[in-house]
Each structure stands twice: as structure tokens, then as C-alpha cells.
């Protein structure tokens, strides 16, 4: 993963140093290379995951795992075969959703697809760590465990609800053949791994590229020449002070970095996505979320880990000083002096991140496996609505208790 990140960064630097400044350069570097690089960087994890799954399938162990878990999974209206995609969901929801095709019953397959996103994928972990470390430093491990368990509970309750309402009929009886144990050949395991990894890239690459371009566009425009001129003048003033030996080289770099952070923050605030965040703020206000938190949730639709980097930009944090972001989240206040994010609001935000729509790649995977945009959009609407209700109840009940 570090090698891929290095290659993506070098490619971005190459374009950055050889192209003239302008929207096309920013689109290629930040939109396309940054967006697609965010998908490609997970390829080693995906290939390792598929390698071991192929080994377990070819050895005959996977069928036995499904058989062992069948009795427990029946309690929430599913089959034992649903257990494997759910476990995979803790790594990445996309291959987990794609693996549901092994479930013969369409009803069980659809329910499993819908509840896989409630498993906390690895992309959510940076958000959990950020907020748990900032607001619950003494109980961070309990908060993390609570989030994982909450996802499992929500998934089980959703499976029961959908089994009693949307998917009441079983299309096929659950019949499972237990193949004999055998030692898989290296060739067959590698072929299965390579084919599935290729399908992952083909299916996810295009939608992620489009989503990255859209989110980049919303965050980049509209541009303001007056704003750029104002910040360029501030940088020029710093350069002038440096030449006059009023500041050292280190102070000059720090001052210029601060100007660039302020430029980026103001640009994000007045961008289209910032306007959308302020537009939906009244809807998120009952949950205690300000417009900056709302914008981070919007950008998180492309990939959940983007939530942290968006918060870093909007709360004016230097990218090289990641430790300052928790401090800014804790100290941020409204004009009346009240804190923007309290521990109660942080819990609501974490649960919202856990439950609300999965990343666009997972949505596309649901569309591909269900062969319908209708079900993919239903998953988006259901998960966002459920996340809002749970976050609202947390703030309401927590407010009464505290």
C-alpha cells in the first residue's frame, strides 16, 4: 500500500511540477489521481482478502463455516452463507457485497447486501480513532468496541425487519453440500484471487473516478479572483518581510502555510459543497452538527476516510500537524461561547458515520449485484434516515440524562 501511495504521490508531483497552474491541473492531480489512487491503494488488502477466501473455498472449509453458523443466522432470518460476507464487511464492504452472489436465495442475498454496510469497514476506523481519542481518551477502546457492536445490532434488527416486510419468501430451500477437504493448488488460488481483484478494479474504478470528479468540482468552484489576489498579497508580504530579514526561513514557511490553510478553508466554505453543507445544516442542526461536520459527511460519500481530511481543511489544521485536529475539535466554539462538539454530539456523529450510506463504491456494488438502481438508492435512503433517527435519539435521550 505504501508503494502504491508513493507511486500515486510521485505521479501527482510530476504533473504538479510540469503543468501550468489552473483548473485542469487541479482536476488531474486532486480529482482524478487523488480519487482513483484512493481506490487503487486498497488493492493489496483486497488481493490478500481474496487470496485467503479462495484458499478456504477450494479447501472445503468455507462450506463448513456456513454450516456451523447456519443455526445462529437463522435467528435473524438469514442462512449460514450470509455469515462470510458479514465478516468480510469488517475489512471492506465492497468485496463483501460482491461475495453475496454465492447465496442462492435472492431474498437472503438482498438482505445480506443491505446489512453488510453496517459492518464497520476499515475506512471508518480513522474517524472512530479521531473522535474517540479527542473526546473519550480514557474510554477510547470501549467506544470503539461499542461502535462495532452497535453495527452488528443494527444489522441484525434490519435483517429481521426486512425479512418480515420486504423479503418474506424464500426462493430456494437451503441445501448445502459439504465437499471433502482437499489441499488447493497454488495456481487455482492465484487465478481466483486475480480474477476477483480485476473485477473489483473494473467495477469500482469508473464510478469512483466519476464521483471523485464531481466532489472535486463541488469543492473547487466557484473561484474568486479577488480572494486569490488577497491571499497572494499576504504571501508576497511575508516574502518581503523575509527579504528584509524581519522573519527567519522557518517563520516564513510557517506564515505561508497559515495563509494557504486560511485560503483553503475560505475556498471550501464558499464552494458549492460548502453551500450544500450550509443548506442542509438546518436538517443536521437537531443532531448538533454544524455545517462543517455536514460537509465532511457529504465528502465522506466518496470514501469514509475523506471525512477526517475534510474536517482538517475546514477547521484550519495544517496537514503536517495531524495532532492539532483533535485539539481544534475540542476547542471550537460558537459565537455565544458554547462548544460546537460535545462528547454527546461526538457519540451521535460516530453513530451517524457508522450507519449512514456506505461509500459510492459500495452503492455501485449493490446496484451491480441487485441489478437495479432502485435497490441501491433505497439502501441510501434507508441508511441515511436510520442514521438521522439514531443520532437524534442519542442527543435527545442523552440531553435528558445529563
Can you put this structure into words, describing what you see?
With 402 residues, this protein is mainly alpha-helical. It is 72% helix and 0% strand. It is built from 19 helices and no strands. Helix 2 (23-40) runs antiparallel to helix 10, helix 3 packs antiparallel against helix 10 (186-220) and helix 8 (125-135) crosses helix 9. Residues 318-323 have low confidence and may be disordered.
Topology:
Blueprint: H1 2-18, H2 23-40, H3 43-59, H4 61-74, H5 83-88, H6 93-98, H7 106-115, H8 125-135, H9 140-164, H10 186-220, H11 225-243, H12 249-269, H13 272-284, H14 291-299, H15 306-314, H16 324-331, H17 343-355, H18 360-370, H19 373-401
Helix pairs in contact: 1-2, 2-10, 3-10, 7-9, 8-9, 8-16, 8-17, 9-17, 10-18, 11-12, 13-14, 14-15, 17-19, 18-19
Q: Unreliable runs, pLDDT <50, ≥5 residues?
A: 318-323
Give the integer mean of the pLDDT values. Answer: 86
Cα gyration radius (Å): 24 Å
Quickly count the helices.
19
Indicate the multimeric state: single chain
Strand content: under 5%
Q: Tell me about the biggest sheet?
A: none
Would you summarize the structure shown here?
Helices cover 72% and strands 0% of the residues. It has 402 residues and is mainly α.
Defining key terms:
402 residues; mainly alpha
Amino acid at each position: 500500500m505504501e508503494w502504491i501511495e508513493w507511486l500515486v504521490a510521485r505521479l501527482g508531483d510530476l504533473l504538479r511540477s510540469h503543468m501550468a497552474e489552473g483548473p485542469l491541473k487541479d482536476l488531474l492531480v486532486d480529482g482524478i489521481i487523488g480519487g482513483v489512487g484512493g481506490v487503487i491503494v486498497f488493492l493489496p488488502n483486497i488481493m490478500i482478502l481474496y487470496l485467503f477466501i479462495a484458499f478456504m473455498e477450494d479447501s472445503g472449509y468455507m462450506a463448513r463455516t456456513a454450516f456451523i453458523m447456519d443455526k445462529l443466522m437463522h435467528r435473524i432470518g438469514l442462512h449460514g452463507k450470509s455469515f462470510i460476507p458479514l465478516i468480510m464487511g469488517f475489512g471492506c464492504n465492497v468485496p463483501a457485497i460482491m461475495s453475496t452472489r454465492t447465496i442462492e436465495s435472492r431474498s437472503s442475498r438482498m438482505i445480506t447486501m443491505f446489512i453488510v454496510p453496517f459492518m464497520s469497514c476499515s475506512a471508518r476506523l480513522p474517524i472512530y480513532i479521531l473522535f474517540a481519542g479527542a473526546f473519550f481518551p480514557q474510554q477510547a477502546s470501549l467506544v470503539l468496541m461499542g461502535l462495532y457492536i452497535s453495527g452488528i445490532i443494527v444489522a441484525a434488527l434490519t435483517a429481521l425487519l426486512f425479512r418480515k416486510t420486504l423479503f418474506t419468501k424464500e426462493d430456494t430451500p437451503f441445501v448445502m453440500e459439504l465437499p471433502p477437504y482437499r489441499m488447493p493448488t497454488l495456481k487455482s488460488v492465484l487465478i481466483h484471487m486475480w480474477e476477483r481483484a480485476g473485477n473489483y478494479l473494473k467495477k469500482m474504478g469508473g464510478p469512483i473516478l466519476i464521483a471523485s470528479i464531481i466532489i472535486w468540482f463541488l469543492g473547487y468552484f466557484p473561484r474568486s479572483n479577488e480572494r486569490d489576489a488577497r491571499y497572494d498579497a499576504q504571501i508576497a508580504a511575508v516574502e518581503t518581510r523575509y527579504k528584509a530579514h524581519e522573519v527567519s526561513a522557518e517563520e516564513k514557511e510557517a506564515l505561508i502555510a497559515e495563509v494557504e490553510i486560511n485560503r483553503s478553508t475560505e475556498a471550501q466554505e464558499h464552494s458549492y459543497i460548502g453551500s450544500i453543507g450550509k443548506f442542509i445544516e438546518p436538517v443536521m442542526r437537531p443532531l448538533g452538527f454544524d455545517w462543517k461536520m455536514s460537509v465532511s459527511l457529504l465528502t465522506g460519500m466518496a470514501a469514509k476516510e475523506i471525512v477526517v481530511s475534510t474536517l482538517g481543511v475546514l477547521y484550519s489544521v495544517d496537514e503536517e500537524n495531524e495532532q492539532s485536529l483533535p485539539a481544534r475539535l475540542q476547542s471550537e466554539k460558537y459565537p455565544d461561547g458554547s462548544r460546537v462538539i460535545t462528547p454527546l454530539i461526538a457519540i451521535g456523529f460516530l453513530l451517524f458515520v457508522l450507519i449512514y450510506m456506505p461509500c459510492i463504491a459500495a452503492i455501485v456494488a449493490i446496484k451491480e449485484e441487485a441489478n437495479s438502481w432502485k435497490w441501491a438508492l433505497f439502501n441510501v435512503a434507508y441508511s441515511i434516515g436510520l442514521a438521522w433517527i439514531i443520532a437524534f435519539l442519542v442527543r435527545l435521550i442523552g440531553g435528558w440524562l445529563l
